[in-house]
Amino acid sequence: MRQQLASMLREARHAAGMTIDQVAAHLLCSPAKISRMETGRRPASQRDVRDLCDHYSVDTEKREQMMALAQDGRRRSWWDEYELPRGYSNLIGMEAAASSMRDFKSSTINGLLQTEEYAREVISSYFLPANPALIDQLVAVRMERQRAVLRRDPLPDMQFVLDEAALRRVVGGPVVMEEQLGRLLAITSELPSATIQVLSLRRGAHAAMDTTFTVLDFPPGTPLKPVVHVEDVFGDMKLERQEDVDNARQVFQRAADAALSPGESRELLEEIRAQYEREQPPER
Questions:
Q1: Transmembrane segments in this chain: where (predicted)?
Q2: I need a surface site. Which of 87, 227, 262, 271 has the fewest CB within 10 A?
Q3: What is the pLDDT of residue 229?
Q4: What is the mean pLDDT of each run of 10 residues along the chain (284 residues)?
Q5: Cα(228)–Cα(91) distance, integer angstroms
């Protein structure tokens, strides 16, 4: 709700041809307050929305929708219970509302598809020295994030393209990887709206080789517009310009076209999983 309202407030200001500084000066508040409401970092109160709608001359129908979103936005979402980076919180909120996701990962498996042990190994690698309490919290968030998306009704349409390197990287050892590959195979069988393709290492150079990103689309009639979420160890970015979204779609499609078909990908997943199974130490 907060992200929907933030998008509508930003759109209304642009339609009115005003800058953040101009709006802040008129409402006698700081530009930072307007910026935080437009990015979803700060929940906009109904009074804030009323004043902004008056200033932007928003029509009655859209005003009522924004006022309702402001009221709903005061309710805390499950992820508000955690102190998360803003970019990550935004991603969770967008995933909760998305009708479709197109995701490419070059070196790790998408967080929505990770087993708990794989997620723990990946998250633990961020911290030196280790912070067990924070690691536990972030793993719990990742597992709850999976439940929130993969148990939705209806499920979003999801297409994942994984570079084979992400499957060959031994995260946590053969046991962890065998379970992780099993998880990917189970998803391809149990979730008809989820497609997994592997981009073979034999394919060589490809369009998405130097990046990792997700294109999210939202149901028709909602105020949210398509967005690209770019994930990086130094922080997350949200790209909303139409030219950026179009470019990301093209890059993703080129990667998907270069990848193995879903059936061929499943065969490779089974092959790599069997390799990890053979590499496991014998039981004592």
A1: none
A2: 271
A3: 95
A4: 79 92 91 87 85 92 85 72 82 90 96 97 89 93 95 94 97 97 96 96 91 94 86 83 96 97 97 95 71
A5: 10
Domain holding 207, by residue range, is: 84-110+151-279
Count CB neighbours of 9 within 10 A. 27
Please indicate, yes or no, whether residues 45 and 99 belong to a single structural domain of this protein: no
Q: Confirm if 264 and 202 have CB atoms less than 8 A apart.
A: no
Identify the bridge partners of residue 101 per DSSP, sorted by sequence position: 158, 216
CA–CA dist 265, 165 (Å, integer)? 13
DSSP characters for 75-95?
Answer: SPPGGGGS---HHHHHHHHHH
Please give the structure tokens belonging to residue 7: 């998008």
pLDDT at position 50? 92
Mention every residue, 6+ apart, whose C-beta is less than 8 A from residue 223. Answer: 4, 5, 7, 8, 11, 65
CB burial of residue 2 (10 Å; 0-12, 13-18, 19+) = buried
Question: Would residue 48 count as lying in a domain?
Answer: yes
What is the spatial order of strands in the sheet that 227-230 belongs to?
194-199, 157-163, 100-105, 213-217, 227-230, 237-239
CATH of the domain at 35: 1.10.260.40
Residue where a domain stops, chosen among 75, 97, 125: 75
**Domain total in the chain:** 2
What six digits make up the tokens of 22?
């101009």
Q: Counting Cβ atoms within 10 Å, is residue 23 exposed (0-12), middle (13-18) or buried (19+)?
A: buried
| pLDDT of 74 | 64
- Cα dihedral 195, 196, 198, 199 sign: positive
Distance CA 52, CA 58 (A): 8
94 with 164, same domain: the answer is yes
- 235 and 159, same domain (yes or no): yes
Residue 89 sits in the same domain as residue 215: yes
Tell me, yes or no, whether 102 and 62 share the same domain: no
